Sequence to fold (89 residues):
Amino acid sequence: MTITIGELADGFYLADDGSGIPEDKRDNVFEAGYTTTEQGTGFGLSIVKQVVEAHDWEISITESAEGGARFEVTNVEVSRVESEQPQSE
Fold:
C-alpha cells in the first residue's frame, strides 16, 4: 500500500491505494470500537477524530484517485515561519 500526503488550501490530506471505505460506512469508521477485522480494535480512527476535533479541525473521508481512502483534515490554520540563515563571520 502506498500512502500519499498532500496540502489543501485549509489543511492536508492522506490518501492510499488500498481497497477504500464504502460510502455507507464512512461515518461509522470514526466510532469507538468499530472494526471490520478480527484483529482490529476499532480505536485508531476514533482517536484520530478526537485529536482533530481537539484542534477545532474537521475530518472527512472521500475516495482517493487510486480508489483507496482519502482523509481530508480541514479548517487548519498554518503559520509559515521563515528560517533564519546563520550569519557567516
